[in-house]
């Protein structure tokens, strides 16, 4: 059967009119894309950083239920997922750590100060009511501060266009999976509003692969709710309020000798924002005052623990106070400047299954920041930007970073040249400093990175080709180090005691990353084909045994290819391929231990959608068509062949 399917697919791909696909970055030729990842509306052709934009059309056509499945199909991005849907998911941009990527939803940074790296776990982020996804690669610390060493993923949810509008999506498929989403909103005089919600359930797969003893299915449920309202008090003054909520339950497996377990994890996260906008001097100066709070609560529950079922509990909270000004000095000259205060708190505990007392770790930190970035257009087609940011961390003092870039559109925008440079600073997280594995002697991570690229539009934008070279050096990269059972070094003892511990956090002296990202998009009649390839070398450059080791779980080679055919009677059919090269599971070695290698894999998906009316579309897809077995992390399985179908309504 597998051979028949492969042969049939090869025939389809070989037909000039029957190649199927999905161009994730497809946009209408000649359209002007506006992005908000630079904290002010900016045409994409004037952005100096390497950038990918996924619009609503591409998001819908992908049929992906989770954002991570979209991101991994774009240049320079790899991911790790510890099992099926809902398990821990890390996104890595250009080989950077997962916690060096900043996630922004409607202008608000989401992060969990109680997590290991203080970043965001992409496991619970569903595509839901998202209108646009913007991926900025390379250091973005000037505008987005700590953690933006690898890049920024900026999420923009939908806003209403009409007096009253609504949408609904429902799909079902393999492993009793059901995904339902709905939204309603409108514009009435000075008030704009929208509310959306979703529910995702699946019986799932065993988080620990059956090849390592996992047998039971580990299910997942996710509920999300987001909303926004804007009230114009006058032509120059308005109030914005936005909120996002997600709650997930994931069955998890033990990493021990008996993997199957009734244990499950609960994750509840929410963020709220309130802001005042005011324009002065006939709109030349736009001011924004805002406050946001984000909170993540995590609990692990094991029903087999009769005394204390809760085996882990954590809560991270971030309050952010901010002012931002945008000043237009003249045509093509803009200054974005602002000040922020970020207050982080965390608590974390691992209760024993007994009545014995246990410690709850509590810690906090404050960061005060000021930033300014100037964008100018000295001549038509050339845009320059440069900026500074100063952060003062309550535990590590002050730090200044610089960034700048240029983008030059030539020959009626047919050729676009980009170059950018950025610096990054990331203080050790509260968990890395104060947890049972903590090390208060850690130094902040610091990075310097640059890239240069070219984008070429040919045949009236029917063919678009791009290539980008990047380099990044990071000093004091923080990693977790496991402890040996004998001859323990001092850091393998709990601070101030003689009690052994399983591991500790320490600084790698230096890591380096460089690579090439290439992408192409072609429109040939009713056929659209696009693809990308990434070559990323991300290595430990510290002297010693680990020198030149590729950092853990980062493929040196990755590629995606998609093609789509629009049939004359309205049907759209597609085939998509994702290939990842092999990775090593840990960058740390010893004289006697060779790191485990996660093998390369190829995933083939088929998709189809058919409009029934102007407001109703039917769709279906087959993921991992050939049921390829693969692991992104040792022992953790991934989804096999899956079939889904549903409908999409836009009213």
From TrEMBL:
<protein>
    <submittedName>
        <fullName>TonB-dependent receptor</fullName>
    </submittedName>
</protein>
<dbReference type="GO" id="GO:0015889">
    <property type="term" value="P:cobalamin transport"/>
</dbReference>
<keyword id="KW-0732">Signal</keyword>
<feature type="domain" description="TonB-dependent receptor plug">
    <location>
        <begin position="45"/>
        <end position="152"/>
    </location>
</feature>
<keyword id="KW-0675">Receptor</keyword>
<dbReference type="GO" id="GO:0009279">
    <property type="term" value="C:cell outer membrane"/>
</dbReference>
<dbReference type="InterPro" id="IPR036942">
    <property type="entry name" value="Beta-barrel_TonB_sf"/>
</dbReference>
<keyword id="KW-0472">Membrane</keyword>
<keyword id="KW-0812">Transmembrane</keyword>
<keyword id="KW-0406">Ion transport</keyword>
<comment type="similarity">
    <text>Belongs to the TonB-dependent receptor family.</text>
</comment>
<keyword id="KW-0998">Cell outer membrane</keyword>
<dbReference type="Pfam" id="PF07715">
    <property type="entry name" value="Plug"/>
</dbReference>
<dbReference type="InterPro" id="IPR012910">
    <property type="entry name" value="Plug_dom"/>
</dbReference>
<keyword id="KW-0813">Transport</keyword>
<dbReference type="InterPro" id="IPR000531">
    <property type="entry name" value="Beta-barrel_TonB"/>
</dbReference>
<feature type="domain" description="TonB-dependent receptor-like beta-barrel">
    <location>
        <begin position="218"/>
        <end position="625"/>
    </location>
</feature>
<dbReference type="Pfam" id="PF00593">
    <property type="entry name" value="TonB_dep_Rec_b-barrel"/>
</dbReference>
<keyword id="KW-0798">TonB box</keyword>
<dbReference type="InterPro" id="IPR039426">
    <property type="entry name" value="TonB-dep_rcpt-like"/>
</dbReference>
<feature type="signal peptide">
    <location>
        <begin position="1"/>
        <end position="21"/>
    </location>
</feature>
<dbReference type="GO" id="GO:0006811">
    <property type="term" value="P:monoatomic ion transport"/>
</dbReference>
<dbReference type="InterPro" id="IPR037066">
    <property type="entry name" value="Plug_dom_sf"/>
</dbReference>
<keyword id="KW-1134">Transmembrane beta strand</keyword>
């Amino acid at each position: 059967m597998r051979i028949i399917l492969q042969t049939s697919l090869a025939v389809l791909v070989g037909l000039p009119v029957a190649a199927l696909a999905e161009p994730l970055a497809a946009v209408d030729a000649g359209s002007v894309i506006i992005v908000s990842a630079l904290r002010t509306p900016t045409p994409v052709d004037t952005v100096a950083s390497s950038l990918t934009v996924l619009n609503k059309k591409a998001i819908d056509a992908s049929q992906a239920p989770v954002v991570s499945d979209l991101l991994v199909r774009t240049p320079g991005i790899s991911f790790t997922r510890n099992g099926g849907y809902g398990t821990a998911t890390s996104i890595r941009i250009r080989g950077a750590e997962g916690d060096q990527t900043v996630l922004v939803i409607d202008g608000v940074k989401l992060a969990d100060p109680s997590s290991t790296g203080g970043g965001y776990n992409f496991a619970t982020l569903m595509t839901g009511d998202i209108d646009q996804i913007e991926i900025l690669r390379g250091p973005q610390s000037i505008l987005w501060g700590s953690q933006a060493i690898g890049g920024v993923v900026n999420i923009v949810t939908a806003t209403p266009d009409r007096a009253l509008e609504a949408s609904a999506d429902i799909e079902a498929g393999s492993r009793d999976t059901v995904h339902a989403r709905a939204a309603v909103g409108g514009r009435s005089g000075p008030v704009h509003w929208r509310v959306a919600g979703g529910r995702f359930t699946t019986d799932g797969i065993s988080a620990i692969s059956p090849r390592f003893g996992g047998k039971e299915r580990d299910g997942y449920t996710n509920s999300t709710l987001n909303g926004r309202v804007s009230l114009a008090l006058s032509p120059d003054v308005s109030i914005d309020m936005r909120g996002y909520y997600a709650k997930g339950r994931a069955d998890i497996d033990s990493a021990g000798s008996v993997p199957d377990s009734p244990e499950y994890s609960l994750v509840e996260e929410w963020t709220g924002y309130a802001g005042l906008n005011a324009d002065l001097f006939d709109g030349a100066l736009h001011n924004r005052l805002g406050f946001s709070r984000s909170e993540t609560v995590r609990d692990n529950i094991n029903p087999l623990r009769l005394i204390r079922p809760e085996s882990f509990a954590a809560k991270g909270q971030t309050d952010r106070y901010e002012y931002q000004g945008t000043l237009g000095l003249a045509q093509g000259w803009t200054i974005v400047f602002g000040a922020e205060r970020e207050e982080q708190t965390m608590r974390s505990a691992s209760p024993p299954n007994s009545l014995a007392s246990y410690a709850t770790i509590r810690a906090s930190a404050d960061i005060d920041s000021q930033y300014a970035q100037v964008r100018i257009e000295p001549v038509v087609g050339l845009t320059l930007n440069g900026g500074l940011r100063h952060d003062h961390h309550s535990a590590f003092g002050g730090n200044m970073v610089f960034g700048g870039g240029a983008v030059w559109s030539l020959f009626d925008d047919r050729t676009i040249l980009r170059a950018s440079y950025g610096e990054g600073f990331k203080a050790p997280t509260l968990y890395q400093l104060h947890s049972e594995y903590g090390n208060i002697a850690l130094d902040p991570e610091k990075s310097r990175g640059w890239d240069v690229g070219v984008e070429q539009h040919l045949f009236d934008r029917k063919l678009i080709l791009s290539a980008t070279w990047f380099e990044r050096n990071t000093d004091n990269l923080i990693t977790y180090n496991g402890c040996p059972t004998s001859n323990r070094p001092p850091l393998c003892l709990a601070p101030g005691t003689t009690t052994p511990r399983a591991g500790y956090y320490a600084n790698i002296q230096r890591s380096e990353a460089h690579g090439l990202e290439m992408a192409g998009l072609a429109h040939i009649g009713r056929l659209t084909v696009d693809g990308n390839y990434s070559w990323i070398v991300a290595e430990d450059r510290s002297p010693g045994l680990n020198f030149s080791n590729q950092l853990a779980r980062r493929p040196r080679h990755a590629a995606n290819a998609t093609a789509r055919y629009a049939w004359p009677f309205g049907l759209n059919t597609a085939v998509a391929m994702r290939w990842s090269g092999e990775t090593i599971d840990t960058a740390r070695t010893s004289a006697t231990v060779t790191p485990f290698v996660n093998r390369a894999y190829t995933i083939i998906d088929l998709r189809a959608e058919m409009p029934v009316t102007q407001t109703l579309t039917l769709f279906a897809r087959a993921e991992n068509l050939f049921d390829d077995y693969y692991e992104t992390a040792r022992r953790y399985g991934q989804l096999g062949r899956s079939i889904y179908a549903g409908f999409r309504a836009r009213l």
